[in-house]
Amino acid sequence: MTNIKSISPTSRQEGHAELLMEVDDEGIVTKGMYFSITPVRGLEKMVLDKSPETIPVLCQRICGVCPIPHTLASAEAVDASLDIEVPKAGKILRELTLLAHNINSAAIHHFLIAPDFVPEDKYATAIQSVSAVRKATQYLVDVVAGEGIHPSDIRIGGMAQNISPLAKEKITERMTDLKGTLENHVKLMKGFIEESDLPKGLGVVDSPLFATTQFYGDVNDFNLDDVTEVLPEAWYGNEEVGKRACTVIPLMNGVNVETGPRARMAKFAGFKDNGVIGFHIARADEMLLNYQRIMELLDELDTSAPARADFDFKGTGKLGIGVIEAPRGTNVHMANIKDGKTQFYSAIVPTTWNIPTMGPATEGYSHELAPHVIRAFDPCLSCATHVMVVDDDDKKVLKNEMLKI
Amino acid sequence: MVLGTYKEALSARATDSKIQKVAQDGGIASALLIHALEEGIIEGAVVAGDPNDDWAPYPQVATNADEVLQAAGTKYSMSPNVFGIKEAARQFGLEKIGTVVVPCQMQGIRKAQAYPFSIRFIGDKIKLLIGIFCMENFPMASLDTFSEAMMDSSLNDVKKMDIGKGKFRINTTDGTKDIPLKKTHGYEQSGCNICNDYVAEWSDVSTGSVGSPDGWSTVLTRTDNGVDLFTSAVDVGLIETKPIEEVKPGLPLLEKLAKGKKDKSKKEIERRTKMGIPTPVLY
Question: How many CA atoms lie within 13 A of B133 on its CB side?
Fold first, then answer.
């Protein structure tokens, strides 16, 4: 006999989602369906007919948890559509901002999963460690990009300005100080995670890995022709779920993929583990890789070099694609600028890629363990909500159930 | 109190001839900034520079004495220094910031320190606020009108601007020219007419020419930080002082002008309120 278990909304994640599971008599999940129930926010429509410089400013508001990857992917997409080559210093500053943010975001996730792994008497230690890591990395984002949340100084063409030699000196000093703190933090969290009694096979997925590079992201490793999008009704094979799900299902070469820290680490850093424990370990290990990369880039940064290119805002009318390796996976924004205005805008964000992979990852174990699987992916739903079906000819909205919420 | 809260009033000037040469009056703002930089009280200051030499001021971050001196002298159009503070704290990486601003900017900065919307982690980095006496401020188009239309001089040829003794004066390559201050009325920023603060009441140290003889400035020290810095600058001989009671015209003139600004603004606020125009609430 098949029973239905539902968790709605799933907890300790950003945004609202539902996990619907078919379970057998032993309570083992036989089919997992995970879908977003966060209402559509329509930023991709809001940016239409706006001038290019407005787009990253609006698009970074897609989310307050991961605003930097959205700003960057948006700026990269517009840069590409305007045919801009960002100067080297601008590229370095952008990557520094992202790396620091990725470390910060992984630390926030450790805060979210603390109740799953950290013994109660170690709570204060773990949270203080999270705070110390965040404080240092957010300082870098503040200085380089103008604001820690919704950075004001990532601009079309590069960065608003380069940093001063004194600022570089201070960042280097803070980052050097962070080394011990970060290594201890990773050791501490990995210790808790490895001691956990969660089954090793829990959450193991065999979907293809989707990641373009270990750091920053590279549009050259992303082929839009490989991507297809399926409406949720068709994907879940369940009309009820299909109606309530707020995202389309993006597929790479016809299949759902896994993106995120483990995908990057497995593809580019030889990481072997899988499953819930593997996800968490990969995320923690990646913090250290990001840290090393920050130190390399700081060394490379010439503070007297220009950080922003001159450009013609009118645009080429070609589709520009921005690909950013965000904390939760590969973030893709697409923009088409013509006559100085946005003609088309679309975003396929990290959690959207993972949504069809997360449900099945809960299968084969007790439904009580399923929330652990979901949290291991660190889903973030506010940006992953994009369904609105319009008739291409007369632009009539054909499906707008979620818009009415 | 028409002069706001202050600890001590003095007449003072910088002793260094390098500062005297470029200063508007007594060179107090420059001397205090340079002293604060040398003592490590601040790492840099947001000052009103004139990068294009056309009297259009622009906030610049000065981190040494030379850069402070390059920005010395009063510019009579607004330099958005409050905006510069954020840049100083971010891309310049300064954690101890000073600035020189007019009273309305001072109110903005103090309010931003109390309610740090969109200036996260900046309010606490502001370590020195020097306020300058200000009756009004002119848009660039007004300065252009005074200089080009009323005094037949290009702004690019103007070496110094000054207001004093009822006149708006410019020193140009062809000598000194002036117009009666009355002729400038109506050309000021409209916000100046509802401003009730002449002496930068919320600063650490306020300074300006009024009350002191030529080449000297009147100084009001207001906060503990302001007193400490000023005293230390006097102790090392960077600034010399005279008791305010011994100089002419002294505090009575300053009080008269400060009160005049308060009275005038009150009237204007009432007039605007009657017309249904929104006006700021003053505390």
Answer: 27
Q: Does A147 touch chain B (CB under 8 A)?
A: yes
DSSP state of B249: S
Nearest CA in chain B to A162: B91
| B90–A146 C-beta distance less than 8 A | yes
Q: B81-89 vs B103-114: helix axis angle to the nearest 10?
A: 40
- Within a 10 A sphere around the Cβ of B7, how many other Cβ atoms? 13
| Chain B residues with beta carbon closer than 8 angstroms to that of A146 | 86, 90-91
Q: Read out DSSP for A226-280?
A: GEEEE-HHHHHT-HHHHHH--S-EEEETTB--EESHHHHHHHHS-----HHHHHH
Indicate yes or no: CB of B93 within 8 angstroms of CB of A153.
no
A164 in contact with chain B, both atoms CB, cutoff 8 A? yes
The nearest alpha carbon in chain B to A150 belongs to B118
For the beta carbon of residue A79, count every other beta carbon within 10 angstroms: 25
Q: Contact at 8 Å (CB) between B34 and B68? A: yes
CB half-sphere exposure, B62, CA atoms < 13 A: 29
Architecture of domain B138-187: Roll (3.10)
Domain boundaries, chain A: 3-404
Count of residues in chain A: 405
CB pair distance less than 8 Å for A166 and B43: yes
Q: ipTM higher than 0.90?
A: no
Nearest-Cα residue of chain B relative to residue A171? B93
The whole-angstrom distance between B92's CA and the closest CA on chain A is 5
Q: What is the pLDDT along chain B (283 residues), one digit of tens a residue?
A: 899 999 999 999 999 999 999 999 999 999 999 999 999 999 999 999 988 888 999 999 999 999 999 999 999 999 999 999 999 999 999 999 999 999 999 999 999 999 988 788 899 999 999 999 999 999 999 999 999 999 999 999 999 999 988 999 999 988 999 999 999 999 999 999 999 999 999 999 999 999 999 999 999 999 999 999 999 999 999 999 999 999 999 999 999 999 999 999 999 999 999 999 988 776 6
CB contact under 8 Å between A167 and B93, yes or no, is yes
Q: How close is the nearest chain A Cα to the Cα of B257, in Å?
A: 41
CATH topology of domain A3-404: Cytochrome-c3 Hydrogenase; chain B (1.10.645)
pLDDT tens profile B108-152: 999 999 998 878 889 999 999 999 999 999 999 999 999 999 999
| Interchain CB contact of A298 with B (< 8 Å) | no
Crossing angle of helices A123-145 and A165-195, in 10° steps, is 150
Name the residue of chain A whose CA is nearest to B117's CA: A147
Domain boundaries, chain B: 8-136+190-274, 138-187
Contacts of A148 in chain B (CB under 8 A): 120
- B61 interaction partners in chain A (CB closer than 8 Å): 164
